[in-house]
Structure formats: C-alpha cells, structure tokens
Task: structure prediction
Amino acid sequence: MKIILYFTMGYPDRATLSRFIASIPEDTVQYIELGFPSPDPKYDGPEIRKTHAAASFDAEDLEEIAGVARDSAEKVYALRYVSDFIQEPSFTDTVRNAGFSGIIAPDLLTDYFQERIEIVTGIERSGLEFIPFINPSTPDPVISEVLRTAGSWIYYGLLPSTGIMVPYDVNAITERIHGMNSGRKVVVGFGIRSLEDARKISSTGAYGVAIGTMLIRYLERGDVEAFSSLITRFSEVAEDVQ
Amino acid sequence: MLHSQSAEIIPSRWYNVVPDLPEPLPPPRSGSEEKSSIELLNSIIPAEMLRQEFTFNRYERIPDEIREQYLQVGRPTPLVRAVNLERVLGFSGKIFYKFEGATVTGSHKINTALPQAFYAAQEGVPEIVTETGAGQWGTATSMAGAINGLRTTVFMVKVSYNQKPGRKTVMGLYDGTVIASPSDKTDFGRRVLREKPDHPGSLGIAISEAVEYAISNGYRYMLGSVMNSVLTHQSVIGQETIAQLEMLGETPDALIGCVGGGSNFGGFVFPFIPGNRETEMIASTALEVPKFSKGEYRYDFIDSAGILPMLRMFSLGSDFVPGKIYAGGLRYHGSAPSLSILIRNGRIKTDEVGEEEVITALKLFARTQGVVAAPESGHAIASALRYVRNPDNAGKTVVINVSGHGYLDLGIFGEKK
Ligand SMILES: Cc1ncc(COP(=O)(O)O)c(C=O)c1O
Result:
C-alpha cells in the first residue's frame, strides 16, 4: 500500500511547509496533494479549515512548494474547490506549469454536477489528470460514470468531510471498492486518524491511504523530526501489506 | 380489502435511496467555523443512527427486536382499496390508500422512533429528548421510549401545546414529559422568551431547545424527519405497499403523499424508485408553506438556532415562521436532501393545496371511507382528488399514503373555521 500526504499550501508558512516536505524520508510517499487555500473550505473538517484560514500564500509560494513536493514524491496533485477556480480560466495552465500531475476537486460532483463534463474536459485538455473525489454518499450510477473519465486513481473519502468522525464499516468499504473493479487505483482518505486506521484500510485492498488532518499538529508545532518519524512508521505499516 | 397482520409483509431490511440517486447527496455542512455541528451529532444521536445517516448500503438489516416492535405497534399497516371514494367520484380507475394512521400512535412517526429509541437504549442512556410540532412525533417518541425502557422529554411548540391538550395527555400516558417551547429550561428558550414573552414557538425553536437539553445532560436526541436515516427507516411503508400491491396483482400509476420534512413521503415512494421510471410520484405540500415553489435549493440550517448542521435542500429559510396553519406537521421550512434532489431532477412532481381544499378532501374521505385522516395527510388526499379528477388520468391506479389519523386534530373542523 502507498502513502499519500495532504498539505494546505502556505500553512503554517512557506518556509516551514517546505522544510516539512523536504524532510519526507526517501521512497516513503507516493503522492503529495497540495491544497489551495480557500475562503470557504466547505467540505473540510474543523482542523483543516483552520489551516486554510491561517495560510499565507502567493504565486511564488506555489512554485517553491510544488517544486519541493515534486522532489519528495512521485507525483504532486492540486486540490482546489471548483467554486474557487471556476472564474479563473488560467487555473489549469497555472497548475500544469507548476508541475502538478492532476487536479482533485472535492466539490465537483456535489456542487457542480451539471457542469462536471465541461470542467473535467477542461482539466484533461490542459494535459492534467482528473482525480475524482467520491465518498459514501456518491450514488452507484455516478461512480460508474466517473470511473470512466478518471485519471490513474480515484480518491475515496471515508467520511462526508475531513475531520468529522462518523462510524464507518471497513468491510462494506472493501466490498464497494472491489465492486468498482475498474482498473483504477483507489486511495482512501478523509478520516485516517492513526496507524491502526491505516492498517485497517490496507486490508481493504486499497492502493493507498491519504493522511492530512493528522499532520496538522506537527506543522503547528514545527516539529519536523516527529513528523518524519511518523511518516516512517506509516510507511512500515504500508510495507507490511505489499 | 383489509389485509390481516401478516408478519411476513414487514420487510426484513430498510431501503436507503442514496446509492440510487441520480446525483450525489450533498453532505451536511457546519454553519460555523468554530465548532463542527456535524461532530456535535456524534455526541447527541446514537452512533448507529450516525452510521446509517452516512451509509452507502442500499439495504440495512432491521434488527429482530425492531421487527418485533413493528408488529406490536400495528405493522404491517393496511393497504385498502377506497371503493366508496371511487364510486362517489365516478372514477374509472382504482384508488388505494396505505393507512399509517392504523399504528397504535396514529402515524408513520413510530417507524423511526422505535429504532432510534432502541439504539439509544443500547448505548445505556436513561433518557431520550425531542421536539414536536403537531404532537405526532412526540407521541411516537414517548411510546418508543416507554417500550425501550427510557424516559422521554418532549419540547412541544407552544401554540400546539395550548391548542392540543389531548396530545399532552397521550404523551403523559406513555410517561413522556412535555414542555411548552420556548421554555425556561434552556438558554435558547430563555433568550427567545426575553425578546418576546408571548412567543408562540416554532419547530425550529423547539428543535434547538431539545438539542441543547440533550447536550447538557448527555442524553440522546431523536430525529423526527429530514435526515436520511429517518427516511431509510420509513421505507417500511413503501416496501409493505409493494408487497401488498403484488399480492393484489396491481401496478400503481401514481403514488401521492404529503411532505413536511419528507419522511413519510420518502419512505413511501423511494422503495419504488430502483429500476422504475414510469410510476408518477407526487409530493403534496401546504400552499401556506410553499417550499417547493417559493423555496430556494441551497444549504440551510435544519433548525432556527443553527445548532444542527446545514443541509442542501429546498428551503424557505430556517427563520421561516408560517402563519397559523391547520396542519402542524407541514410547517417545517425545509425538506429532505434526497427528496429535494429527486424533485429538482423532475423524477418527483409537486403539488400545493390550501386549507379549504384540504378540509373538503378530509370530509369527503371521512364520508366515503370512514377514515378521519390527519390534516397533513389531507394534503395527499386533496392532491389525489385533483389527480383522479383530471380526465387524462381516467382508468389509472393511484396509491395515497395516509400518514396519520386525525382524531387529535379535530379542532380544524370546529366552529372557528
Ligand atoms: C401525520 C403526519 N403526516 C405527515 C407529517 C409530515 O412530516 P414528514 O414529511 O416527515 O412525513 C407529520 C409531521 O408531523 C405528521 O404528523
């Protein structure tokens, strides 16, 4: 199983974040997702919301952070709400030029369902992968459709939004992931809180686990050592199931 | 054509429409940056309810204990062909009604009150808390609390509390404690009373009080409608109807029900949705609470205090206070998100009927079928009358969900009117 990390760009600040990303032990992290700070991170939980509010971020930051991330993981993906980029036609080009491989838009299927095809086409036309974000509330017919247009993987959120713990049933999730059987890799996230959670997810046959909220406390404290040893421990769990 | 209580008709699982929706169900959202109101749900509703709220499973097994309780409270409810009504109308088709008023508490509300109380009891809390407008939900919750060994506290909208002493008596018989809302039992209630001592109350205020009371005492809060898990529990109505129609060899052309928060309607029609594009589904609301024609489809609070999360739904605004309306259960400003999606996408049609037409319909239904239906259900009946009187619908088969009986709402037929 692979490890995928999520960071909000510019949190707590460019230098600290770059230092964290650069400290990621080699060959431990498969993808890095970088979130564009949003004035309304509507589907994020309270902790990630705080990182959006506190982030300081501009075009220079983008280049530097994306650059460090590219050196620390196989691919880097941009995470941004459609409501923030829909009025910004140059966004996909900006993202591609900064070296991102694709875009994850957490509100695409819920808030822009009618416009989804147009938006996905725009992403693909810029030479980027479209990474669909689905969750327990995504209906079966929508999942089937989305799997056909997806890039190399899909993001499966365990919870309706990050940081909000509702009970989930690992067995049912396993069944659903197997049922999708689309040849797409499935990355599971939104709600991973411990090594134990990651171990459980690994038993579902998922391609990877995404970790975000758990990292915030290290970023907040600027504790790079604890962060990088956490990543090492996660990668040990992940290796157990290879 | 009354079906005897055949336990096999009670389904063994609940049906959840979410995996069969045409588009994703927008998740609940917190209204405030500071504290997550979704996390709050974690601490006030039973964990099993929360799991069911967010599940993608098409079916959920009904615990044996709950099936037993369903049987005890009068499930399966009858599906009756309204032959006299057909005759009086000179209708060439068939009219059936599913009678949820036949449950011991007199409405469909018991279908979700039982599992919610059962899950709360499993968690070891001593008390469950809720709000009620017209009184049907409070009655169902009190009864469900009683048979699951729990105390029940019900915050009842003050106008109803004053107008419907009979409701209080019934809840009291079930050992429920009924408090008129706004009350001095909560911060929110006290604040409302300070601003307006003679405030008549609203469902939103009562919800807010019940939630606050549950939080501060560590009790479990019961959800009466709107939430997905509640609609899932109500699917016993539609599943039984499917089984009963099958026994009769009938295929419905139209299903008609009334909408407050959407639970009896969703429970009635959703089980018909998989693989079915033909059956018409009509959601009837009060002209006085025109959520589908005048409401906006947007995120809005479940309750007027904004304690509970926001849902994306048709809403008239969580601060909407309807004028005095004869059907308390239809006063609610919003409607279940799943139902809202299906209305927006055209799968489900809507209708609005006003007081006079509803009362006429209730009288006709009483005179022809002997059933004193609840004022809320009167909307379904009135919309069904419109449907069968339309010459285009000659010869069709219609099923009405009569969500409750009206014996405790007789005031609407009184001299004042
Ligand atoms: C008899 C009856 N029917 C209908 C309703 C409306 O609620 P819902 O739309 O959730 O079924 C109520 C609510 O109190 C009711 O008591």
